[in-house]
Amino acid sequence: MSKKHDLNPTLSRRSLMKNSAVLGGLGAIAGGITLPFYSVANDKEESSPHHPTKTVWSSCMVNCQCRCPLKYHVEDGVIVRSETDDQGTDDYGDHQVRACLRGRSSRKRIYNVDRLKYPMKRIGERGEGRFKRISWEEALDTIAEKLVEVKENYGNEAIYINRATGLMGATLASSSPPATSQFARLMNLWGGWLDHYGTYSTAQIRTAFPAMFGQRTGNGITDVQNTNLLVIFGHNPAETRTSGGSVMYHLEQARRTRKVRMIVIDPRYTDTCLTKEDEWVPIRPGTDPAFIAGMAHVMITEGLVDQEFLDTYCMGYDSKTLPDGAPANADYKSYILGKGDDGIEKTPRWAETITGIPADRIVKLAREIAQAKPAYITQGWGPQRQANGEQSCRAIAMLAVLTGNVGIKGGNSGNTESNFRSGYPEFPTLTNPVKAQISVFTWMQMIQDGVNMTATKDGVRGKEKLGVPLKFFWNYAGNIISNQHSDINNTYKVLKDDTQCEMIVVIENHMTPSAKFADILLPDVTTAEREDIAAPGNSGNMDYRIYCSQVIKPMFECKNIYEICTELAKRLGIEKEYTEGKTERQWLEHIHKNAAKTIPNLPDLKTFQQQGIIKFPNPGEPPIAFKSFREDPDAHPLETPSGKIEIYSQDMAKAAATWELPEGDVIRPLPEYVRNYRGFDDPLAEKYPLQMVGYHTKSRVHSSYDNVDILREALPDKIWINPIDAKARGIQHDQEVEVFNDKGRLLIPAKVTSRIMPGVCAIPEGSWYRPDKSGLDRGGCINVLTYYGRPSPYAKGNPQHTNLVEIKVWRG
């Protein structure tokens, strides 16, 4: 075995033998690259006294929003075991932040067969995964030369940093949001880059909530202890927020305090419901606004709305609070009672035909929610990831508004819960000189037609017309290119043409499906191979920071992101400005000293490193969204045009009147029900009769950890299908089935279960795309079947839960 292929000088042959299961047999083929096999069969195990084990703190930093501490046990430079937080008394409010199964399996990612070892250059067609090894000097020179060429020919707006969430919460090495990354600082010092707004998870709610409230915020999750009723729309923290530092733990503890009744509205009977909920309300995907309209009809006709709240704090509930210039009968009450433009009275019977929820149940729920006072009404991000997602998230908020639950203890705005923040600072990435932005979901459109993208047609911000195509594509720690983006088969066709987007640079740990689309592929270190400070994205009522020491030396030829960007800055003539003369450790010291200016009793960095984790429990009450506005609306107006809650949104009314929209797309000033293309009543349903949604699985975070075999074995992917739909198709439980539509085909085992409503099926998202020669995806990647052509109308966001499919038994 040649020296250049060695794992690391510190990895003894004894350690490799001991950890052969962890290494997973490194003789496999990954993306056309032959990985060396390490034979250690003849080595002898040495006694432990000569090989002491040390414990080093680090963190899991994937996109579950939690960020949990890991204590790695290291022997001879190799991680042999991992634990999680065991500090303190573990009392509620100062609890241990315990990592889930994914985080605890992280050494399986570190020593995975898919690890990238050295810089590579594409030698085949994009997407084939054929590369040749090159030196770091050649790789960095090639990237710098192409950056200069693109800047000279097209300007900095043709350079794009993609949304990539494989490494989140790091202070120095975070990949997302891109504006907080090292690449953002590099590009900002060199003239800027084209940024995006929105996220794949939250584009619609991020855009529509501010149109209604001026900003997007909610009560803290621990405020559930002050409520009489918890109403959850499409939120499943038992699978998405599983660690001890995040929402599910807080939710459980808060519910125990008061024994709060919970109602869950979701097409699936999720794990959040199991043994905890009091009522599950199955609903057709994309029909939440119709359900709420039906309940609103009951509340209005039975005098159950909070009229004083609506008169004082809201604009557009009835005719007397409409803004000047609004059409007659354009208010919400008129819409519900059938006096608006469509002339349809939104009765519970009307809502039943759309939602699949019986009318008498809608009546019962409306009365219970209206009279609970206070009621904590919240939503996850699933309902808004629809083609009419802006309407869905505003409609759910409307339920909180009608009942006057905004701005009070035990209530909520209808938004996802908020978190306590300590004020710990971030890495300074400076200001982007480029002001134009595109929607996060439209980068592929920019590749094809960026020259013609406009503000009113395509949602371009900061500029009336974009005027340039996307030519240089940074993709750091992300699998969106060909896995998490919609319509994979079409995406492949666009990206393989390297005359359009001229360079794709991927910086990654593993040979992911997206890494195969790189022109230059750079091997990044893992979190365990560098030094950093981790911050949670969703921590409930206790903020914290984790010191991530360098656990092991960088493997192979991997470099960390600060090294990579420093070398590129040198080639671009901005090294001094980029580093400011600081090493990574000095940057951490600088940031920590700044934190100490505002956070009392913060330990010094050395003590922090020894402790591993610093916890910042909220010293006061949980956050109450819009509390000051509720107490004094004149002194604390909202950031809307009227300063009030805009049930009739003036911003959306203006967009509705001026934007160019595809046929069938609409923007409504009111939170109305709008039919979805590819919805349950679309003509296409005759051919593809099942609505398909995605869901999160405990075995991975989006696509992170999908290449960990023990997780896939413990929690295998399956498509959920109701027994009624399965019987009609001759499908048995655990039988392999083909799921297909006009976008593509995939194979996956069936889970026949009454935990999903008839007419709906659900596939776990994030599985790696593994197509065979015929194009059939054998990895079960849901985005083979999702639709790209029409982003949501107002946010131009991701509608990846709006799909129609058919399923049949796989015959081979």
Characteristic key phrases:
single chain; alpha/beta; 27 helices; 812 residues; 6-stranded mixed β-barrel; disordered N terminus
Which secondary structure elements does this structure contain, and how are they paired or packed?
Layout (H helix, E strand, L loop, with lengths): L12 H6 L1 H4 L5 E2 L2 E2 L18 E8 L7 E8 L2 E7 L16 H4 L1 H5 L9 E3 L8 E3 L2 H19 L4 E3 L20 H7 L6 E3 L5 H11 L15 E5 L3 H4 L6 H12 L2 E5 L13 E3 L6 H14 L5 H7 E2 L16 H5 L11 H8 L3 H14 L2 E5 L9 H14 L34 E3 L3 H7 L5 H4 L13 E5 L3 H5 L3 H8 L7 E6 L11 E4 L8 E3 L7 E7 L12 H12 L2 H5 L4 H13 L8 H7 L1 E5 L9 H5 L13 E2 L3 H9 L31 E6 L13 H6 L4 E3 L1 H7 L6 E5 L4 E8 L7 E5 L39 E6 L3
Parallel strand pairs: 8-16, 9-15, 10-11, 10-14, 11-12, 13-22, 16-17, 17-18, 23-27, 24-26
Antiparallel strand pairs: 1-2, 3-4, 4-5, 6-7, 6-18, 19-20, 20-21, 23-28, 24-27, 25-26, 25-28
Helix pairs in contact: 5-20, 7-15, 10-13, 10-14, 10-15, 13-14
Structure explained in plain terms:
This protein has 812 residues and is an alpha/beta fold. Helices cover 27% and strands 16% of the residues. It is built from 27 helices and 28 strands. A 6-stranded mixed beta sheet has the order 7-6-18-17-16-8, covered by helices on one side. A 6-stranded mixed β-barrel has the order 23-27-24-26-25-28. Strand 25 and strand 26 (745-752) form a beta hairpin. Helix 10 (288-301) packs across helix 14 and helix 10 runs parallel beside helix 15 (389-402). The relative contact order is 0.15. Mean pLDDT is 91; it is low at 1-47.
